[in-house]
Amino acid sequence: MPIKVPDLLPAKGKLQEENIFVMDESRAFTQDIRPLKILILNLMPLKQQTETHLLRLLGNSPLQIDIGLLHTSTHTSKNTSPEHMKQFYKSIEDVKQNKYDGLIITGAPIEKLPYEEVKYWDELSQIMEWSKTNVTSTLHICWGAMAGLYYHFNIDKYIMPTKLSGIYPHTLNDPREKLLSGFDEEFMVPHSRNADIRKEDIENTPGLKILSESDKAGVYLVASTDGKQIFVTGHPEYDSQTLKKEFDRDTAAGLHPQIPEDYFPDDDPEQIPKLRWRTHSNMLISNWLNYYVYQETPYEL
């Protein structure tokens, strides 16, 4: 089944080129079905790129999904046009009376900042508090996962001496967990972050369970015992070129970044990276939508 997106959203054309089943608003009105209402709080600077990344994964589900895009009104995006933001995005004030089946909170390249120094931290805290009563299940990604663990469970992040960037193998802590249904025993995930969450802090916190981790990248998947909060420390939504674009950007800025680990063939930035994590990424989002959203959400929101 398709995802339902605004008729003029730029990501729609890109997804249709990839044969992702996208339904525009005009066609969706003719179907007698209640789609899942999924809200995406997009904190990434390149918002159109992130829209495509996430909609690609959401469009692989057999469920019909109605997408809404949310931004923080206390921060003005410097990398996305005001016209795009005005046309497609809403603020929490616009949607706070609504109920949603699922919420996705993206990452943001601000891991080195203390949470309280983030310009929109108060607004993000308001959104996360609102999600407790207005959202069936929330999926937090990368910095969004760190922020969620800090807000909901008081687990702080730690700055790493060097940036973690690359593709890393991960294993399953309990294959019987619904979120891990169909996963291979070892699977690859992109990471790109300057901070980490300590395993012992999670293990010492009631109400949380570590589902997957990596010898090199650390804790990857964490879930609250009630399934309402899912935390993903990596970037399963990234496409094959995202880490390359980040590496090229940092190189051009004179930051002398390390070459992303196990990403470029032969560690040669002139070679084309291969996409080796799409299957796991699709399965992760499909399992979340099915087991933590669709199977749990009420028919009447």
UniProtKB/TrEMBL annotation:
Binding site for substrate: K163, S192, R249
Gene Ontology molecular function terms on file: homoserine O-succinyltransferase activity
Database matches in InterPro entries: Class_I_gatase-like, HST_MetA, MetA_family
Active site: C142, H235, E237
Site (Important for acyl-CoA specificity) location in chain: E111
Keywords noted in UniProt: Acyltransferase, Amino-acid biosynthesis, Cytoplasm, Methionine biosynthesis, Transferase
Catalysed reaction, written as an equation: L-homoserine + acetyl-CoA = O-acetyl-L-homoserine + CoA
EC annotation from Swiss-Prot or TrEMBL: 2.3.1.31
Source organism, top-level taxon: Bacteria
Annotated Gene3D superfamilies: 3.40.50.880
Compartments it resides in: Cytoplasm
Pathway annotation: Amino-acid biosynthesis; L-methionine biosynthesis via de novo pathway; O-acetyl-L-homoserine from L-homoserine: step 1/1
Record-annotated site: Important for substrate specificity: S192
SUPFAM superfamilies linked to this entry: Class I glutamine amidotransferase-like
Major localization listed first in the record, in broad terms: cytoplasm
Matches recorded under HAMAP family: MetA_acyltransf (MF_00295)
Family: Belongs to the MetA family.
Purpose: Transfers an acetyl group from acetyl-CoA to L-homoserine, forming acetyl-L-homoserine.
Protein name listed in UniProt: Homoserine O-acetyltransferase
Organism expressing this protein natively: Gracilibacillus salinarum
